[in-house]
Amino acid sequence: MAAKAGDNPDSLMALSTAFCLRNLRRTMCYLGDGNKLCLRSDVFLPSEICDKLVNTYMELVHSDSNFEPQDGFFQLFSDPRSTRLTRVQLREDLVRDRDLEAIGKQDLIELHLTYCNSLSARSLKTLASFRQTLVSLSLFGCSHIFYRKGGAPLACNEDDEEEEEQQRPASRQALDTDFSFQGFNRLRLLNLGGLPEEVDPEALLKPLPALTSLDLSGVQLPRAAFLAQWKERLASLVLYNVDLSEELVNTVVELGHLRHLDISRERTSKFKMTRKILTAIVQGLVNLVSLDISGHIMLDNCTVPHLEEAMGRPSIEPCKSSIYPFQELKRPLQFLGLYNTTLCNVTHIPAYKVKLPRPGELLAMQAFAPAHHEHQINQLIKALGLCYYRVRPKTCTPSSFHLVIAALKCHKYEKSVQVTGSAALFYLTNTEYRSDQSMRLRRQVIQVVLNGMEQYQEVTVQRNCCLTLCNFSIPEELEFQYGRVNLLLLKILEPARQDESIQRIAVHLCNALVCQVDNHHKEAVGKMGFVKTMLNLIQKKLQDRMCDQVMEFSWSALWNITDETPDNCQMFLNCRGMSLFLDCLKEFPDKQELHRNMLGLLGNVAEVRALRPQLLTPQFISVFSDLLDSKADGIEVSYNACGVLSHIVFDGPEAWGMEEPLRDTVMDKMMAAIQSWDVTSRRNINYRSFEPILRLLPQSIAPVSQHWATWALFNLVSVYPSKYCPLLVKEGGIVLLEKVLELQTSHEETKDMARYDLTY
């Protein structure tokens, strides 16, 4: 079968990089003096590898909760004789002044810093060390980098200084007036979005005559004329959320080499976009290929009256434009942003791509744009909302899937984005869209869903994320994040009072995750506190005298997690599990599903020889004996009760050690129960191994146990031959059944069933 698009494996470079970062001490590093991480002396890493290491490190820190930031990581790249960095992207508060100083000797060509609010004016001095080589620089959202750390002693420890700085209000910081871009002669692309009002952009930018791309998003420009210094070079100008004025517009239209202009906005403004202004932009910027005027108030005289619009299908020909000023374009624009303007509904728009309030188009513009994080987040939420309402009636395009994932990854700290995006993912991952989804894409969904669960203990996000996980094949598709998803679900179930719907979904997921997985997975989850968590839920439901799905799923989950895992069985006994079993039987005597799950679990406990003495009490044996007569759930409760007793009596009369009830009496009752069962019964049970049953066959100490085991095999191989006959052969059951026929102590009925088993 052909692989789906996007199912190609990760590159060897990507796999090797991630492996090295997760195993630094086993690959390229060692611990030096003071447990300091050091690069091995025989390692030399070219820029292609170093850039990948640093950028992947940042990605793992922000997207993988299992990846721990490594103290001193950036110090590994301090010596350009052994490491070379050229293109680095760093973001958010993880990055400190000392980290940037560590790479200060590198010849960086590109440095993108986004929302690195832990950086201070110390880092401006480090920036100066890159002035000979830097071509592209972004300081977007680094609002503290232009302020000194005032008030700290000169000789203080660097860590103490940074801790003190985090606690100091911004108002007590002193603006750094010494920094200048003087000497940054190679700098061509600069992003200063979010520049503080106290910083004079004109003075700061004056030493940069060769800029070709400038982003001043959200920056106040009281004097705009200085932009004219780049009229012969500037190709891209972003003035998102900049307050426009007549002076600023007049200056912009002088920049005749502009190809990309963004004057869009999110917040309200008194400025009105007129036909005259749009005409001036079109006439003055003849090289323009991309224009974004989203969010502006447009005057009505900009558009052709509906009755006068060109007839026929929508056209991108400028001469037919429904927007008057754009009729003067020499060619259609590559992109035109009209979102949240009155121009959205016109027929003829002279552009190949248009930003309108459509989920795919708007998401495409917003999902990958964390640079405008603070200002454009509302647009992103609107876009996700539109995608959600499109995807529910199955009218959303497959490309929206990638865009929702990108939005959730880039904005994982925005609660509103997580709420709306997780709702869209729930519908995008259901069966209607599944045929278009590669394994890699579905794994990306799982990652962003788990990120949301980790970040937000809020009802809506948790419910959306849990419901989305239910759309996956469990445990197969979640196994690559097995430990992480179990920890998150157990954390959700910790509170004594939890939203009922979330609790029900989370317990269902927990149960599915421990069903049909290897024993080492079950043992690991048991050590996480799985058994105790389930028993706490059961205890709470008992207190409320409520036997609902949470109660039944909790016992089912315990049944699954104790299967062939003695340690988990021991935990069940240690956490007063038997007491809860008796209490549930007494409180809910007619709940058949509950009884079946509880007896199935106790069957697992009884299979562990070392634990059987804890079940061998008059109270427990009497309860198990009484349940032999149960007709609940067909034969399942009676069958499981008999299985528990079969293992107990298998230990012989010496282990019985009590006068009442008598061992022989119990065995007689077991035999009567087995003879009452219909051997053609279809079963609500699933065996992964026959080993616990087979060990009861070749023995004479408890013939009734042998009879129960033979009946179980006869029922399973006759009703489900294709599934269980191969398992019987594989695990050596044929030889053991032949030995049953040889034993004189075997009942004739037992031998008859053994003969039938051997014929299948």
UniProtKB/TrEMBL annotation:
<dbReference type="InterPro" id="IPR056845">
    <property type="entry name" value="LRR_Zer-1"/>
</dbReference>
<dbReference type="InterPro" id="IPR000225">
    <property type="entry name" value="Armadillo"/>
</dbReference>
<dbReference type="InterPro" id="IPR055142">
    <property type="entry name" value="ZER1-like_C"/>
</dbReference>
<dbReference type="InterPro" id="IPR051341">
    <property type="entry name" value="Zyg-11_UBL_adapter"/>
</dbReference>
<dbReference type="InterPro" id="IPR032675">
    <property type="entry name" value="LRR_dom_sf"/>
</dbReference>
<comment type="similarity">
    <text>Belongs to the zyg-11 family.</text>
</comment>
<dbReference type="GO" id="GO:0031462">
    <property type="term" value="C:Cul2-RING ubiquitin ligase complex"/>
</dbReference>
<keyword id="KW-0833">Ubl conjugation pathway</keyword>
<keyword id="KW-0433">Leucine-rich repeat</keyword>
<dbReference type="Pfam" id="PF22964">
    <property type="entry name" value="ZER1-like_2nd"/>
</dbReference>
<feature type="domain" description="Zer-1-like leucine-rich repeats region">
    <location>
        <begin position="203"/>
        <end position="341"/>
    </location>
</feature>
<dbReference type="InterPro" id="IPR011989">
    <property type="entry name" value="ARM-like"/>
</dbReference>
<feature type="domain" description="Protein zer-1 homolog-like C-terminal">
    <location>
        <begin position="408"/>
        <end position="755"/>
    </location>
</feature>
<protein>
    <recommendedName>
        <fullName>Protein zer-1 homolog</fullName>
    </recommendedName>
</protein>
<dbReference type="InterPro" id="IPR016024">
    <property type="entry name" value="ARM-type_fold"/>
</dbReference>
<dbReference type="Pfam" id="PF25013">
    <property type="entry name" value="LRR_Zer-1"/>
</dbReference>
<keyword id="KW-0677">Repeat</keyword>
